Input
Amino acid sequence: MSVNYTEAQKNRLAELGMDYAGLNQEFETPSEREKQYKTVEKQAVRENKGMLNHLLFESHQPKLVLLQEALEKALCREGFTQVTTPIIISRKFLERMTIDGTHPLNDQVFWLDHKTCLRPMLAPNLYEVSRNLMNITRPPLKVFEVGSCFRKESEGNSHLKEFTMLNLVEWGTPMEERVERLKDLATLVLEAADIPDYRLEEDDSVVYGKGLDVVGTNGLELASTSMGPHALDAAWKISSTWVGIGFGLERLLMYREKQQGIHRFSKSITYLDGARLNIK
Ligand code: ATP
Ligand code: MG
Output
């Protein structure tokens, strides 16, 4: 009869980054398992230490920060303007996105009090800033933000409660050029992220309706796109064509680095730059 790693051993190896196949390895005897466990645990600790040493003595900045900087540079070169808006937003702003008490996303919102919450998305602030900017300049107008968003998610390998969103929007894209433009902008961001392999897939968003998703070859959603004129625009007093894309930066890293779990790339005190911190 064969044996597997114990639950405690599996947990330890998983937190050190061992993949699914490795974790489910089978052994002829418990003693063979113990021997193998010691070897692979030691090896995994060495690899995690190597990553931390790389951060401490070479890169000095985590991959999440480096990715953010690379994307910001690429978009600014393309004529986009970066904005930074508050993480705390009003109930009124969410309602303008049609997220009210009956909306599926409402249960995922971290409410601070009756009137304010941690933003689950960047779109409301981008709508507001763009509307004001369009009072002083006519489209085309290209704006983006990179920042934390918060959603109550059931635990999983590709969802975080706090994650980093890049949301870009281009106002004034000619109607018939929108789909092509979305593809070009997705390519621009993914090239800057050093991700060559992805595809576009149709998807139904609970906020925007039908749209195109950017998906990894393993089916992982990397980004969602949307375009306007859209029914939501009227609430922000905007009438313009537009295209927009929202990327999750930790998803991009997890996909690019071929890791099964997103948590090691999150803003964390357990992981740092993809490595587990509690190693000796
Ligand atoms: P999913 O269907 O994977 O839960 P979503 O469609 O709800 O994602 P969007 O609202 O389209 O997510 O957000 C845009 C992007 O932000 C997603 O494509 C993904 O890359 C990222 N993202 C969304 N929610 C999370 C989360 N909880 N943790 C990490 N990244 C996320
Ligand atoms: Mg989506």
About this structure: The pocket of adenosine-5'-triphosphate (ligand 1) is lined by residues 151, 153, 159-160, 163, 165, 221-224, 246-248, 250-251 (CB under 6 Å). Helices lie at 7-15, 20-23, 30-59, 63-77, 91-96, 123-136, 178-192, 249-256. The radius of gyration is 22 Å.
